[in-house]
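We store chain and fold; thus.
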Amino acid sequence: MNSTEPLLQVRDLRVDVGDRNVLKSVTLDVPAGALVVLMGANGSGKSTLGLTLAGHPRYHVVGGQARFAGQDLLALSAQERARAGLFLSFQAPPDIPGVKNNLFIRTALNAVREARGEAPLDAFDFLGSARAAAQQLGLPEAMLGRPVNEGFSGGERKRNELLQMALLQPRLALLDEIDSGMDVDGVRAVVQQVQKLRAQGTAFVVVSHYLQLIESLEPDTVLRLDQGCIAEAGDLELARDIARTGFARAADLVEA
């Protein structure tokens, strides 16, 4: 990757879901180690952007470009994107019946390690790291041996996403409303984990409406997505304005 090129570079990205055009034109840059907050009303395309960048097959790119770490992101499979260091936390993490949490995460981690040229972790070494990370995140150790997200509460599912992120240590993490369903301690765990990984160089795109979380994350950039386009870009004051006036009022101000 050219040292001057942002880690993630998106240009005029247009995406259809089924017969509906959801992203009309999205352009953004995320430098290595940066934190970008993405805000927008329901249906504005925030989740579509994350799922598209992660390579979900239901999201069809009809135009534009996306580059990640110097590569054509759109030319890579979802697995190749993950191995390259892109991580997505789902807004509603699904169950994976019959697949134990620890096996799922270790398999993913070893695939990433292989792509980095690192040796795989055996079950013993992995469990030591996983138990320590789970304890830091307030996730009961017993959940490592249960099927992925099966019977987990909303907050436990989100903590499990944080656990995956903590162990995978991605280059870029897309967090889609990671705070929803979280209690106060869970939100604190989000902030601590983001700060820890960011200090190690991970970049973030965080979708959130929760001003207290956004302020705690201290973003470099705040973007407002509206009807599939980036309508405004600013700093923390933009998030505060949106929290104060609402999305409808923010849109009126731009049009005026």
Notes: The chain has a mean pLDDT of 93. DSSP finds eight helices and twelve strands in the chain. Residues 236-255 form the longest helix (20 residues). The domain at 8-255 is CATH 3.40.50.300 (Rossmann fold).
